Amino acid sequence: MTITEAKEQLMRLQRKLAAYDHAESIIYYDGNTTAPKGTAANRGVTLSVLSEERYRLGTSEETAELLEFLDANRDELEQKTRRMVHLMLKDIREMKKIPMEEYVAFQELLVKADDVWHRAKETSDFELFRPLLEEIFATNLRFAGYIAPEKAPYDFCLDQYEEGLTMETCDRFFAELREGIVPLLREIAQKPQVDDSIRFGDFPRQKQEELAFWLMDTIGLDRAHVGLSTTEHPFTISLGSHFDERITTNYHRDDFVCSLYSVVHEGGHALYDTGSAEELAYTVLDGGVSMSIHESQSRFYENIIGRSRGFCRLIFPKLRELFPADMAGRTPEELYRAVNRAEPSLIRTEADEVTYCLHIMVRYELEKRVMAGELAVKDLPGEWNRLYKEYLGLDVPDDRSGVLQDSHWSGGSVGYFPSYALGSAYGAQFLAKMKETVDVDGCVERGDFSPINDWNREHIWRHGALYTPAELLDRVLGGPFDPSYYIAYLRGKCADVYK
Amino acid sequence: MTITEAKEQLMRLQRKLAAYDHAESIIYYDGNTTAPKGTAANRGVTLSVLSEERYRLGTSEETAELLEFLDANRDELEQKTRRMVHLMLKDIREMKKIPMEEYVAFQELLVKADDVWHRAKETSDFELFRPLLEEIFATNLRFAGYIAPEKAPYDFCLDQYEEGLTMETCDRFFAELREGIVPLLREIAQKPQVDDSIRFGDFPRQKQEELAFWLMDTIGLDRAHVGLSTTEHPFTISLGSHFDERITTNYHRDDFVCSLYSVVHEGGHALYDTGSAEELAYTVLDGGVSMSIHESQSRFYENIIGRSRGFCRLIFPKLRELFPADMAGRTPEELYRAVNRAEPSLIRTEADEVTYCLHIMVRYELEKRVMAGELAVKDLPGEWNRLYKEYLGLDVPDDRSGVLQDSHWSGGSVGYFPSYALGSAYGAQFLAKMKETVDVDGCVERGDFSPINDWNREHIWRHGALYTPAELLDRVLGGPFDPSYYIAYLRGKCADVYK
């Protein structure tokens, strides 16, 4: 086999893997958006077959030989191919350590867990979901043991979502955040609370949908390639490549702000994905490099852009057009203050920027202890509630607004949550860098997203997974990651909103 | 290999094939219901990979050996397994005659054709679609030559949708129909035309959707396993097995009758599919046996049941509830006469029962001539329009209401249309048989569909593809198929409606 032949084979292999991804993703997407209620078991049967086929393809002798051959000749490969080989070899070496039956069983478990979690959340019934969650944590533990027995299991989990991330880093990062956030919250508590009544009223679903499409257009999403649907828990998914991207939202009839920021958050994910260089499509480098870089983009658009004064001024006329009765006599400044109201609350996805990281810390703490064997899954609701009291001062009334609120665990993800906090902090530092060359505030207020999107595309999006998160950060920032940018950003915002 | 092992392997193989079916079907379904406009090419890439993988799986040496082994031991197999082996061997023997590149290229062509057809229909631009349609007919011709060089190509096409069907049979069948229908139409033309103004008005989409769900419940569809979406051209599709079935409809704001009968027609398909015995799921025997038996069910529910006086009486109170202004002062009898108005029209799917078969004859005639090399694709619009003038006395104003109206050709299907007419005729004979033991009219008027559905399930649905269409007909009817039932049924209906 020549290197040229091997490279062609590598591209064909990635196209196949992308096709299986497409099939699995769309079955997942359909299950969450359109599928009749009784069809989860049917999806499970198909997904178990497809994941088995993909497993075979990804770990076959032929694939391993191809990758080892290319790896042995890596000095003759250009950077892009070298990175593909590196990522796929890492995957294959890890996959090979997991017995196929266990891999397939885990996929089937997740289909079932998704269905049961939805029902458990509806009825606030943790016990219904508990056996599945136990199995999900147990599987994560087992897989960690197979793949990285030298590591603490939770360090393995963290590394899955952010190459190189460890509990040590997280502990330090969260401590620094806590030191910044807790006094800030204490200061705010002394001030009169911001009036956020502007967000509440009667906002028909159809009008909110119109707003959602308008927002997608406004922030620069190409709706020929990005679709919008409705789900219980908003998410973003690529189908096969970044040429077909779907985001979802959830409309609350009495509060238009929930869907608004879901759309902008998921829109940020979709901008990142669809911004991949065309040549990366149908390869493992397509889309984003890591969860935290992904969250840095989604939360950049949601918060740094979306909760800025300029953005509130930009969207206010549209709100007045769609909701004339509710917006009568209101001002953009009222909207700005309302969407930046900082206050401990129960639901992570609806939390303000200041308290958001406290929600993450609760989850981080709990995952860490379960994975260390220090906490049983059955005790999660109690500990969840205890930590919400300790960190946020709140009583959790039921598991629906507590331990059952997120879809991550039912989706099999343990170790994902810290990415949200990291991503938020990256975003603040990106903003500082972007402001060196772009009039960010002016652009947002004018609704001219091109300079902002161009900057992100140039520095972040187009690279897909070409660089490691650390390399990418280094290239973008020209220096080390520094959480103090984020803390300074939050302090500035609070000073402005609370005077 | 023992026979037991071989049988287990056969079931595993069919599960895999069903999983690929699921993936391909849902990508098709998504493309028609939800996908953003610019994503067809992306679906094409995935479908070409998946169809190639499925082709390999279905035609591999291992598969062929397994099937030949079982076939050699067929005396030791129970009927169900014997039938599976027969159908799969037939497929594999046919598939092996098609070069894989051509098979894959055809799948890619169809994805593109679907997209282009939608655009061509929107703009009534046959030229846009022509090159793709030429390629579709050419591919059908080529495949017919590979698989059954001894047959006339169009006979091969007919056989694909109805085992054993030939042009000779069709010519005879259509001649008999023509002899019955043409004088009937002439008689009707002498009578005062029926007033169908009840169907026109302003029917909000949401109310029509509510009606659709109510109709699904009323005719006995299990909505935990049957979903409803909206598409340009209504269709029914199974995803992986009969446990997940999707039907679609198309709402016309000014005429509620279109969607009403789309739902009942597609609902008939879905009843048939979901009525398969549970043990047939994930096998090639799951779902219906042939297109004409399928159409016998869909058109049974749409016309024989759905356009009966009893059904109009049954649904009228619901219509009055949903559309109080438009239904004020109207009667069920007006609805009954309106939905049975017989009159030459342009669109097949909206045609009345009497003229419907004339629409089919046009398509049959054209396909037959194109496949015989007697008609060029570029001349299809002209010939289409000429035949509509000859058979139905109508001028076709544009290709959107003419040659571009159906999705069958863009979906690659040539030889499908005669099934509609055959199915209609089967249905009338099934009705006569059913009436020997079931009070059909009474059940419909009471909204008690169980005895009707039970009869169909017992005699037709549960068998899936266990029997050939001919065997099934023989079992149901206890005698030969006889089109005169259908002609008598149409005469009776017309006599009643037109007095």
Strands, helices and their partners?
Two copies of one chain form a homodimer.
Chain A: H1 3-33, H2 40-59, H3 61-72, H4 79-95, H5 100-123, H6 126-147, H7 153-161, H8 167-190, H9 205-218, E1 226-230, E2 236-239, E3 241-249, H10 256-274, H11 291-305, H12 309-322, H13 324-327, H14 332-338, H15 353-371, H16 380-392, H17 418-434, H18 440-446, H19 450-459, H20 469-477, H21 484-498
Parallel strand pairs in A: 1-3
Antiparallel strand pairs in A: 2-3
Helix pairs in contact in A: 1-2, 1-3, 2-5, 3-4, 5-6, 6-7, 8-15, 8-21, 9-10, 9-12, 10-11, 11-17, 12-14, 12-18, 15-16, 17-21
Briefly say what this structure is.
The first copy, chain A, is mainly alpha-helical and 499 residues long. The first copy, chain A, has two domains: 3-151; 167-498, Neurolysin, domain 3 (Orthogonal Bundle).
Strand content of chain A: under 5%
Mean pLDDT of chain A: 95
Largest interface, with counts of residues having CB < 8 Å to the other chain, equals:
A-B, 38 and 38 residues
Tally of separate helices of chain A: 21
The SS-based structural class of chain A is mainly alpha
- Tell me the total number of β-strands of chain A: 3
Any idea what the shape of chain A is? globular
Task: Give me the oligomer status.
Answer: homodimer
Query: What is the N-to-C succession of helices and strands of chain A?
Result: HHHHHHHHHEEEHHHHHHHHHHHH
Termini distance of chain A? 69 Å
Which fold does the CATH topology of the largest domain in chain A refer to? Neurolysin, domain 3
- The percent of residues in helical segments of chain A reads 55-70%
Radius of gyration of chain A, in Å, reads 23 Å
Total discrete domains of chain A: 2
Sheet with most strands: strand arrangement of chain A: 1-3-2
Give the CATH architecture of the largest domain in chain A. Answer: Orthogonal Bundle
Low-confidence stretches of chain A: none
CATH class of the largest domain in chain A: Mainly Alpha
